[in-house]
Amino acid sequence: MVLELHIWGPAFGLPSIDPECTATVAYLKHCLPEEQWILIADHDPSVSPNREFPALLHNSTWIAGFHTITRYLRQQLYRDIDARLSSQQRADSIAFSTLLSHSALPLLSLSLYTSFQNYYHITRPAFTSILPWHANYSVPPARREVAKAVTQHFGFSGLDIDDVHESTLAGGNTSISGSYESAKAVAGIPTGNGTNSRPNVLPLGFNKSIKKILNKPEYAARFRLDALTKECLQPLDDLLGEKSYLLTDGAKGPSSLDCLAFGYLSLMLYPDFPQAWLREGFDKYPRLQDYVHRMRDELVGGNTVVADVMALQHSTSPESHNLNLPWHPRVPEHPIGVAQNVATSILSALPLTSHFARPSIIPGIDVPETSTDAMRANTPSSPLLTPFLALSTILLAFVSSISYLSLNRDPRSEDDYVFFSNTEAARRNRAQSFGEAGGFMAALGNQMRVNSGLVGDQGREQERVGGAPVVEVDVEVREKPGL
Amino acid sequence: MLNDDNASDGVYQSDSQSASDRAARSSIFSVPSPIKWLFNSVPLITYGANELPLRVPRRNDQNALYIFTTQHGATRGDPSFNPSCLRWQAYLKFCHIEHTTVVSNNHASPSGALPFLLPSVAKGTDRAVPVPSSKLQRWVAQNTANVVDEAYDLRYDAYLSLIDHRIRRAWLYTLYLTSNFHTIVVPLYVDPSSTNPLVRMAIAHELRSAAETELLKHSVVIDAELIYQQAEEALIALESVLGNSEWFFGARAPRLFDAAIFAYTHLLLDEKLGNGWAEVRMSRIVRKHGRLVHHRNAILDMYF
């Protein structure tokens, strides 16, 4: 009886690109012996009951989410690394994990996904190396949409910036932190860190008052971001104090809160983003940084090399690799399964069908008294429900994509399907009227042309990013009134 | 012909006295004479302002807290049926600030959300500036001597997040997405808004989908089991931090934190809310935690 943990693949030297996945890996490594569980870098979360990783497979039961998994291990397998905590520490653990996930998740969403520069230069290439070709069209854009929905109420219009994207392409360096530092230099304020000497890009007049400068959207955003970062990290730093773990000290070992904190904080610390406001905010907490470095060695066994893990997929003997975690290759997908995955992701991205494709409420089963002990046996639908259903889905998706592409044919702007140039013409492309689905379809259309040998320069340009066929899907064109 | 000429001449002379006026007339910005004549013969009258409706409170020598409540409840100062209103209502009571409650809805609020406070004004001064809930704590600190001190506790924010996230999510789910919607939300929020069945349907639909959107922000699917479990864990943690003391974090008097937890526990334990709870799971979970029930009863007895 081996437990299978399915997660999003590794990135930035961490076991996973997702904070909860990393936290779950750390938890399992600490609470189960090495031979009792395996770790699989997966990409199709439709197997999971809540359609998200981490998902744990145990005796054909799927359990999803960090909290549900720790609960399941505690109740069904009697594995609990929090068993040594006092009842007060347990209460603290619950409280701080709630505070942490609700303050850190928006920050990570802003940093990894909403910020266009970071997404474009770091996050999406990281996904490219862990996802198969077809998932690259659906997974990162979908995650970005979710992240933007989560962070919409902050109103950081200055971060989700196609304008920055354009100016970057034009050769200017106008990241928020860069222009912020240079504005401070111009205003005669000593900059926080001397190493960060970016070129002075702002053509500031001498008679502009500092208040006027600081009221500009990008600095206002920066102040708010710093405040949010502080709101997230200060309580943890206070809680850590001089202890070796957040709740316990010394030989007692880490608790589940340490695993969760490592999952979130490591993604703030290790990725090297062009818009580095989150990491710069983190620099003010050296004690917490030491803690995260220490936790990486202790909880997940140090650096995870992405290439080694992904190489497993193609090798036959997993033992030949020297890995810190029990990585195993994913079971190769059946071609029909791949086709159905592609089909369902197309359908769920289309404006009309998406509504029916995603039932989103799982009603509770109200068992009177001690209902919480009853763990529901989640039996998710198999990817190949019935051959009929699979075939009809594929057919429907194919027909709709063909009709979309034929509808969208414009003899003047064939090249607009490749959005590398992100010009005004591309922005106005009719694909945008289809929203996310439009971007998806356009990418697919381009991939079709690539495959059929019709490509010109765009095909070669695609190869530029990391060898894998990456198509730039620009879904960032709609003006969101709320942002 | 001659008469006509004279007549036009007369009009001309009476209309414009000097040469400079004549020059002005020719510019495109001047008013053409037929229109000017029309406006002169139909003078514009400005009517006086309407009387304020009788239901508008005339006395503004008392602080008025605008909350979700019933007409009957407002006169008696009953607890609001909306958690965020009840939180501030209880906090004002803790700080011994005299106030009246006024029936209102979100459209009346300058910030778009209730509650807000219209402070009392002395005679002869300007109109009061409404205080939204986000600034209410600061307003209380500035305007009263017996402010409840919020001693800083390391764990304060963490435990507050349990209320603001886990318990609030369970509240949203159990109120809007279960059968409680028809027994509580419809009579309390939907029916007073309009008598038109179509409008009521639209409002009900809007409320439900807003709650659903809010819950979907944090997960791809809304898993009721998980929401209830997390709320129960939160209540266990809150009961544990309350310990055997009367108020949270060992305070001598109830504070904002007590108001925040009271806002949810009171409503979940109130059996007469709306037409009564149809889905009682969340209420049952709260009832299991005796010390929290005691905490709620103590506040209800002392302050309401």
From TrEMBL, chain A:
Location of this chain's protein in the cell: Mitochondrion outer membrane
Major localisation: mitochondrion
UniProt key word Metal-binding: no
Superkingdom of this protein's organism: Eukaryota
GO terms for cellular component: SAM complex
Record GO biological process: mitochondrion organization; protein transport
InterPro entries: Glutathione-S-Trfase_C_sf, Metaxin_GST, Mito_Protein_Transport_Metaxin, Sam37/metaxin_N
Domain Metaxin glutathione S-transferase: 230-295
Protein's UniProt name: Mitochondrial outer membrane transport complex Sam37/metaxin N-terminal domain-containing protein
Organism of this sequence: Patellaria atrata CBS 101060
UniProtKB/TrEMBL annotation, chain B:
Pfam family, one: GST_N_4
Domain Thioredoxin-like fold stretches: 83-179
GO annotations of cellular component type: SAM complex
Segments passing through the bilayer: none
Stretches assigned to the Metaxin glutathione S-transferase domain: 231-299
The organism's place on the tree of life at top rank: Eukaryota
A GO BP entry: mitochondrion organization
Designated name of the protein: Mitochondrial outer membrane protein
Source organism (scientific name): Patellaria atrata CBS 101060
